[in-house]
Fold this protein.
Amino acid sequence: MQHLLIGKLGHLFVIIAFVSAVVAAYAYFKAESTKNDYWKSIARPAFIIHSLSIFSVVFVLFYIIQNNFFEYHYVWSHSSRYLPVYYKVSALWEGQEGSFLLWIFWHVVLGLILLRTLGSWESTIMFVFAFVQAFLVSMVLGVVIFNLKIGSSPFLLTADVINAPIFDINPDFIPEDGSGLNPLLQNYWMVIHPPTLFLGFAATIIPFAFAIGGLWTKRTLEWIKPAMPWTLFTIAVLGLGIVMGAYWAYETLNFGGYWNWDPVENAILVPWLVLIGGMHTMLIAKKNGSAVKTSIILVIAAFILVLYSTFLTRSGILGDSSVHSFTDLGLSGQLLIYLIVFLAFSLILLFKNWKLIPTTNMEITSYSRDFWIFIGASILALSAFQVIIPTSFPVFNAILSNLGIQSNIAPPADQVMFYSRIQIWFGLGIAILSGTGQYFWWRKMEKKNLFSTFALPIVISLAISTLIMATSGIYEISYLLLLTAAIFSIVANSQTLLRLKKKKSNLSGGAVSHIAIALMLIGIVYSSGKSKVVSLNNSGMVYSNDLPDEINKENILLFIDQPIEMAGYTLSYSGRKIKLDNYKGYFSKDQFKESANINYLIAGEAIYIDSVKIIEINDTVKYNPENTYYKVGYKRPNGQEFHLFPRLQENPSMGNVVSPSIKRSFFQDMYTHVTVVANEEKEWSETEEVEAVIGETFFANDYVAAIERFDRIEQIDGIPLQEGDVAVKAHITIQGKTKDFIIEPIYLIRDNFAARIPDENEELGIRITVNTIIPEKNAFILGINTAQKDYIILKAIEKPFINLLWIGTILLTIGFLLAALRRWKELKLNPAKPI
Amino acid sequence: MKKSHILGIVIIAIAVMIIIITAGDASTYVSFNEAKGMAENGNNKKIHVVGQLKKDSDGHIEGMEPSEDLLSVSFQMIDNNNTIQRVYYNEPMPPDLIRSEQVVVIGSFSEDVFIADKILLKCPSKYQEETINL
């Protein structure tokens, strides 16, 4: 039975949400232009209806995902039956339509919070909200007018989207299961990273709306005060969202780092940098009325850049240059219109009111606070500019080819090097200014107190950085400069914090954020500058016989039970493991038998952890069959030991995905991932016969083996023998390098016929059959088959001080939220002008 | 001239510098023949080449040679101008390479071998299901 009603209901709510957004936008527009409160009495309920419809759409979409209605294409392509409920939540926004919905949802939440506090700003700001919502909802509208497709609905039926012959035979066919969530996204960060990022994304509309409202109502300076706390809030959330994404990449992807300068990453970093620049100029604009124009431009630019990044990642224009852009839904035209409309709208308002924007001649001297903050904002904007240019190469190619010019510029070959090389200098500027900025902010600087202010922090930071230079082994001059500047910033801002504490004034969010940025910069410099591939081996190999250059290989081949030395560790691989739902730790798959359902296993034996029985024999346990974990041991000569479990996820429709396993310690992370694993389908050799006497050794796949003893047994696999049967089990030990392995083939005589039950150790690639028993010689004829031993190829990287980056991020969020709170209180305590 | 104008000019000058540096570092999409020509003229810039793996008439991949220790791989690639070229990649063979329908190699020529620093693969229906498997 197809559940058609619920989807129609969902689609209906989408349409109501669209119409009510258009009505609200129009009514707010009229309310502002006619100053007639009658229009507000239409606009407000319209926005409320819009909000309720959006909540309903989200609810309906989650409902069909949660109930496995695979007749819906969105559910079928992003979810599956056995997905845990928290991943069903992330399936909600995995697809393009769902992620638009998430964005729309946050706009609604923010709009509802704002609505009650806006006062005289209501009409213009809520107009911007409703206008943006109308455009965004149109992206998921899914209606066709005159052959023009507007938006893509998340409530399309599988049968309407997929062209499979089954639907011709049986139009009511419902797929048994969905194709599942992208394995890369099955990570707890994917449950909280997208909502955080999209909240930050959505919140950029608030400073934008205030700037637009300020221009429109000719209050070109007054908008800054009420916009300030929201701007700080936006930066905090967006920053947190970006770094959460980086942390997810570090934990889940295998490019060996947290930041790859991928276009999708860049597209979201750029508006963040621009908005931070805007926030700084807003500070001086609020204080002295200077840099108002710059503030308006930067705040508008941040929002337009958010739209631009949406266009980049969702139009399919990035094509090959990004690993994680969305698939093209054929909506790029719609996105482009959206971008152009808001750009044109902002520019027209800006030019119309340009003359009304107050200007004061900024004091450009080296003692002026405004000047230094302005320089800081310029550096942030330039840094953003440097990132956006190469990110936009595919756009330039597309524009040129539309103009009939052949263009083949490609992104830089080594993206990480390319960006880092230039960005490090911006980082240096930011570190220096964030250190000095606080002095200029809190006290008046003059020539006579310049020396007394800076002497101490400079001496302290030089001392610390000299010490670090001597011990760190970093030699690149740019890294050293950045390191010194960042330490200076920490010292300077700590000094400010201490002084403020003496004065018992509020904790300065600015100083905290600046310390945080400096910590992040140090973390970045160390973890990338000193990141070291430790699985390096100079194998003496050459590229080809024509080329004499020797090459270093960055991977190590590791056979099971064959430890090797690597970077002061003894490295060993001890086999494939699985993880069970509801149980801690890793288990060997051969302790379990498969069941009729691929997601469940049956325990073949009782399983103990620390001699406590946790699983009974024949218990059923749930697990994810896609995941295999490769147990790798790291042992120091002093006996210290830890194990890492890098993962391979095999998803039939999405290919193999490898994820690293990371040993974290405060000073450095050991990051390890498999690059290649041995094929699980073994090719067994021809049988080789060996005569073996009990207690004497023989060879099997280059291992020393011996038959310890043989026992008569009364049952096989729990099934008692029939009468007259005789069965013996040979107990063969294989002497491994790390431990002994046991292989127990069985020889059974029933009705004068011999039956042979071989036993094997797949990982060692040994299978042994008892072919014949020669009682008089106390000997056995064994049949031995061998196969490729299990192996992995792995890459291991040391990343020092990466923790400073994560600590810095948390501190940064706290700093910005502190600052936001302070500005909120300021608004409440001092409502000098009605806002 | 006002000081603020000088400041503006400095910022614009830096922006222009950024564009020049960026343009200088940009790579290009070229064919193997062009890439070889560049290398022969002493231009060792890393470039992008788009193409496919070489296959025989039955669709089997030809000329795929993982090294003995499995830590590197070399293969035959056909670019969009149908030039066949041996490519060496100093990393273990990416598991998706065999099923890829398009390969982008980034690197440069060293003598007669194209040495790829990085490989980008486009695999069929990696992120979007096209059909229903029963």
Summary: Chain A has a mean pLDDT of 86. The two ends of chain A are 55 Å apart (CA to CA).
